[in-house]
Amino acid sequence: MTNFDREDFFRSIRVKWIFMDVFTIAAPGDGPYGITTGPDGALWCTLVHAGAVMRIALDGTTTRFNVRDGGGPALITPDLWFSLLHTGAVGRISPSGEVSLVPLPGVQGSYGVASGPDGGCTYTTMQPPHIGFIGNDGSVATVSLPEGSMPSMVTVAGGSTWCTLNQAGAVAQVGPSGALTIHPLPTPDAGPVGIATGGDGAVWFTEIAAGQIGRITADGTITEFPLPDRAGRPHAITADPAGGCWFTEWAGNRIGHITVAGAVTTYDLPVAGAEPHGITVAPDGTVWTALETGAVARLTRT
């Protein structure tokens, strides 16, 4: 268990009304990747290359929990389900650090993961391409997706499960009855990755190859919003409780905010080449992002 060393690891930048801190939490090769606010009010971050999950208290105290057999823990949900890139399983960690795995026979690894009803979760696998559902009793059910579509992140909205299909340039929707609908994006080869349920009830997603943020409604209507830097490689996205969504730009080395109307504001990270991936909003309204180079960044409104 360690604490942030403010002198060695604290760097900040003031941009208009935003104050941004960066805290080193791991070695550069450990790969902080997914981040969420857990049921205990702390932040939880995956270390994809180190095979671990880390708890980050808001006072800066960190506790690291290793995942047996590594497995490449990637994305993580608010109720602490996490995906495993290199293991045929989905994991879950308790607030006290106990790790359990649900095996997924015949699967090479899981990637997208989202909280499901009644304590279960939904997930995606790239090979074979599936959306899967884990019940609170541990049961597993799957819906097949098009071969080669590379299902990525996943969310639940309006009774449906939605996921991005990175190589198909589409968003997949599985309805309450299990029916599958594929929604092609207006921009060809857009490469959608991140996806989240917005406060407006629509589903929002990133287009990493096109440099855009997308929005899809329950009836399948799609709107795309080009970013100021089309080469910024938007990756993850999360709802802003105050309205709109926050997102990361991996190549642009920044995080951004988009309103429901599509107005975009971006904030550069105070360290170069930080590789921002996952993003979450903490209970105190601060915005946190995982930096694959070994740190987390906190954006605070002042």
What is shown here, in short?
This protein has 302 residues and is mainly β. Helix content is 1%, strand content 52%. The longest helix has 4 residues, at 6-9.
Query: Structural class of the helix and strand makeup?
Result: mainly beta
How many strand segments?
A: 29
Task: Using the alpha-carbon principal axes, give the shape.
Answer: globular
Low-pLDDT stretches are: 4-17
Gap from first CA to last CA = 30 Å
Please trace the helix and strand order, writing H or E for each element: HEEEEEEEEEEEEEEEEEEEEEEEEEEEEE
Strand content: over 45%
Q: Helix count, per DSSP?
A: 1
Biggest sheet strand line-up: 1-2-29-28-27
Helix proportion range: under 10%
How large is the radius of gyration? 18 Å
How many strands, what sense, and barrel or not for the largest sheet?
5 strands, antiparallel
Q: What is the mean pLDDT? A: 93
List keywords for this structure.
globular, 5-stranded antiparallel β-sheet, 4-stranded antiparallel β-sheet, mainly beta, 1 helix
Structure in words:
The strands form seven sheets. A five-stranded antiparallel beta sheet has the order 1-2-29-28-27, with no helix packed on it. It is 1% helix and 52% strand. It has one helix and 29 strands.
What topology does this entry show?
Elements: H1 6-9, E1 11-15, E2 18-24, E3 32-37, E4 43-47, E5 52-56, E6 62-66, E7 73-76, E8 81-84, E9 89-93, E10 99-103, E11 110-115, E12 121-126, E13 129-134, E14 140-144, E15 151-157, E16 160-165, E17 170-174, E18 180-184, E19 192-197, E20 203-207, E21 212-216, E22 222-226, E23 234-239, E24 245-249, E25 254-258, E26 264-268, E27 276-281, E28 287-291, E29 295-301
Antiparallel strand pairs: 1-2, 2-29, 3-4, 4-5, 5-6, 7-8, 8-9, 9-10, 11-12, 12-13, 13-14, 15-16, 16-17, 17-18, 19-20, 20-21, 21-22, 23-24, 24-25, 25-26, 27-28, 28-29
